[in-house]
Amino acid sequence: MDRRLLSLDSVSAAVGVPKDILKLLGLLLLSTPLSIPLANLRSRSIHIYSILCSTVFLLLVFNLTSGWIQLVTSSLATWLTLKIQLNRKNLKSKTPWLIFFGLLGHLTINHARRLFWNVSPDTVEITGSQMVLVMKLSTFAWNVYDGQQPTESLDGYQRSTAIKELPGLLEFFGYCFFFPSLLVGPAIPFSDYSKFTSARDHGLVSPPGRGAHALRKIATGLLFAALVGLYGGQWSYERILEDEFLAKSWLQRLWHLQVAGFMSRARYYLVWSLAEASLAMSGCGYDRIKGDWSGGRNIEIKEIELAQNYKAVFDNWNMKTNIWLRECVYKRVAVMEGNKPGFLSTMATFGASAAWHGPLPAYFVAFISGGFLQALGRSIRGAIRPFFLASSRISKMVYDGLCIIGTQTTLNYLVVPFVLLDIGSTRVVYNRLAWYGHIIAGIPMLILWAGGLERKLRKRHASHIKEQDKKAQVVAKQSKPTTMEPVVVASGNSKTVITATTNPIDGQKTISMTTVIGTKLKST
């Protein structure tokens, strides 16, 4: 054992990567070959196999005995609570809410303990897997609740994930401890896991191309691993805090921030790509209707890096967490607002996301700032974008390019507190960058919101559209219906004349056929 640890220490020192991070990356890579048998196993065997693999990961590799016990306890408590309420036929909305707050409270305590004991971010402890489990269990609770509601009261997604009957403990724990998504997610809904595990029981073959897709994702993960390993230390947010950074010009500082932002995201691209590879190799995450692997995907890298607004960033980043927040917080709070999501739903969602990440002021600063920037992007898109769309194609391309640059430069600025996790350090970084992100966002906010320009532009655009519609209707009314040249089809002693008329107002075509039989006419 000492020799093994010594060897791991040597590798860690040689590559400059902490031991726990090496273990994590090693397990993420190992999960793919471990997932190969899953596509050909019966459901019961999958549950047992997953539980055993996850137990080995947590107990033997990371030595997280206490954490493993906590995960088991949280899972069992959730299942028993739902079981009791179902037996009493008393499963109301307060039950999943109690489960949600209980799970989030337990996670917050562990986050606080980590902060109190000043545990290094490079140390893998139980909160990582617990964050994934919180999403799984709270989603599971709401899915069981939805399964007891009238079908017509549910939306399409809720109907697809609703759980009519509580699964047995073995299947439930197999879901909770499904090892491909244990360490870093993504948190798939129970309905997806159940379909996957029961596929072999129903004679379905494993999805096509799972090996090729897994290899592509491994290659993607290794590419980002190489980028982070070679350049991550040099291009980091922490470097901005060093005194040597002051020797750089402002443009050099700006460029450093952009590369540092990409390198920070690359670490997530690395682990989520490897996790998706493991899910794909198991056969889980394949959408048989769409014919793709979107069920196990947590990121869309291209869409993030070329995003024109913050909605596009948030929609494609940590996608399963976004679904969890939407389904377990946003929609559920909206019910309290008369099924019309408003300010309370939005703020509850951002608050839950910040609390899920940990009780640090830096998280709340980052997420609240993100909320304002998303709202600003919505205002710009609604008030300014229509005028570029009405102009030339070049103007539209210029607008799109400016939006990409604006989104990326402010995004890399926005995440400074999220990465550094310290308000004081964040203030130093912002000082050294002349608070450019606040200026870029603040000026449009003042002009559009405080100055009332957004309301005026929207009103002007609406009037313009209305005027254009009126002109189009006038032109259409003055135009005569167009009729195509009749087509005559002869057959024996009959002839059929086919004509088509286009209505200039709505563009609809009317086709008529007249058949001549001898001297008689038949029209249809």
UniProtKB/TrEMBL annotation:
InterPro entries: LPLAT_7/PORCN-like (IPR049941), MBOAT_fam (IPR004299). The keyword Acyltransferase applies. It is a multi-pass membrane protein. Its main location: membrane. The keyword Membrane applies. One of its GO terms (cellular component) is membrane. It is found in: Membrane. One of its GO terms (molecular function) is 1-acylglycerol-3-phosphate O-acyltransferase activity. The chain crosses the membrane at residues 46-62, 360-377, 398-421, 433-453. One of its GO terms (biological process) is lipid modification. Keywords: Acyltransferase, Membrane, Transferase, Transmembrane, Transmembrane helix. This is Lysophospholipid acyltransferase.
